Amino acid sequence: MAYLTDIEIAQACSMQPIQEIAKKAHIDEKYLEPYGRYKAKVDPQLIKDSTRKDAKLVLVTAITPTPAGEGKTTTTIGLADGLKRIGKDVTVALREPSLGPVFGVKGGAAGGGYAQVVPMEDINLHFTGDFHAIGAANNLLAAMLDNHIQQGNALGIDPRKITWKRCVDMNDRQLRFVVDGLGGKVNGTPREDGFDITVASEIMAVFCLSSSITDLKERLSRIIVGYTYDDKPVTAGDLKAVGAMTALLKDALKPNLVQTLEGTPAFVHGGPFANIAHGCNSVMATRMALKMGDYTVTEAGFGADLGAEKFLDIKCRMAGLTPDAVVIVATVRALKMHGGLDKKQLGTEDLTALEKGIPNLLRHVSNIKNVYKLPCVVAVNRFPTDTDREIEFIIEKCRALGVNTVLSTVWAEGGKGGEALAREVVRLCEEEKGDFTFSYELDGTIEEKIEAVVKKVYGGKGITVLPQAKKQIDQLTALGFDRMPVCIAKTQYSFSDDPAKLGAPEDFTVTVKNVKVSAGAGFIVVLTGDIMTMPGLPRVPAAEKIDVDENGRITGLF
Question: How do beta strands 265-268 and 256-260 pair?
Fold first, then answer.
């Protein structure tokens, strides 16, 4: 049987004018700024003007990802459509895709099958230009920093202690480490430099955590770009760059409104990676979504040890949000990979591999239930090769933890395949009361907070702090930054910092290699393992399969 690709399904969909979607989301047209027929920016004033009470907030997260796939964004969209089908007033809040993965490994990132947000080509490519604006603001600050040094360096910035990098929204390993300012005095000061991918830029984190233009400006002004010869921090405020950076970002800061294939309003805005940043859509989009429905479904990137941990410990703490329920997405195939099965063997029943792999799911479930004390449900994305015995095995194991398991077929059936999950989510929101608790409090030391996440969430036995990282921690503590939450950059493929350790490894330590402050975002970034803030393209990039015909119709985008 030949299946339609995601892009073919999306292109066959009959989209509703964005004004109709706005009506469903209770948005008056005076707040709407259309970008063509099917996309719009929404004025944040709507959040202040709305008299509606906040919706129930549902977080969708997942097990540790594998090449077999889990379908977290697909489940998020399908759940929202499922809630709509059972009569609920619902909105969905998602991150924008980065061009790096779109042209790299993943292809499109707007859901899949019959659970997508559309227009998927626009969302996956330039969309409304938000990422371009973020990149421009980042690079304006870099340009003003180097120009300040060129024009006499009144602030006494040490070129060897510059921490601010340039960025580009593309996987380009060639730019990780560069030397620039060559060609003589007129062309700048020669120094070592480098690029991050835009989604790893602190501007992206600031953008996604800001609650207003005023808050945005205050956060931008606190960004540390480097240190003086006597080790004093230099900020974007010191360089007088904040006003111009805000001018570049003011329109991007407005949340984007689009729709699912079934016409559910979707706010798609901001997009930090969860392995190297905090992995959630913007606070403003979440707050807007909460005001425009009775249920809001959102997702956090990668496994629950990354995206959900940062959503709960960073975003919810800063924005004053409390989720009412959590969905943990899993597949039989992925759990069998965690049990050591090769990807080519996943199509046959193997309860032994499943038993070896299921501790990964159970640790994520236990974390949500026992560390964060939130009601949760396991959503199993069912594949045709999954057997009843395999499904029943998962149901029994989760039941032992007091958590229900629901089958999801949203990829194949859209909202209809998410109705059962929707009913369980409604039951959790209405009948089970959580006691939301962070995994650590802010008054501990930087090391204590890292260790709390490693022990409580990852299941490790502790941390090893390398001498360079210890020196950085001491410096940040002396500067008064030790009361911030920690944003741990770690491989997405394991609870540990070693991507080869699948399942639910134990007795491991996490090595802390570098620690730096994102003073504007308001958190400490902790780099572990071999994490890269600028990914590279694979041997066969997804870009090789993407094309456009003479009518402008895009193909190959997943």
Answer: antiparallel
Tokens representing residue 365 in the block: 């479930």
CA distances from 102 to 83, 145, 203, 428, 437 (A): 29, 31, 21, 35, 35
Give 2-14 pLDDT, tens digit per residue: 578 888 888 888 9
In degrees, to the nearest 5, what angle opens at C-alpha 381 toward C-alphas 377 and 386?
Answer: 120
- Report whether 463 contacts 247 (CB < 8 A): no
Q: pLDDT tens digit string along 423-475? A: 999 999 999 989 999 999 999 999 999 999 999 999 999 999 999 999 999 99
pTM for this model (two decimals): 0.95
- Determine the distance from the C-alpha atom of residue 44 to the mean position of all C-alpha atoms in its chain, rounded to a whole number: 21
**Predicted local confidence at residue 1, as pLDDT:** 46
What is the enclosing helix (H) or strand (E) of 398?
Answer: helix 388-399
User: Running DSSP on this structure, what letter comes out for residue 318?
Assistant: H
* Structure tokens, 519: 């003073």
Which residue(s) pair with 298 in the sheet? 59, 93
**Paired strand residues for 486:** 524
Quote the CA–CA distance of 198 and 204 in Å, as a whole number: 7
**What positions carry a catalytic annotation?**
72, 74, 95, 106, 274, 302, 383, 411
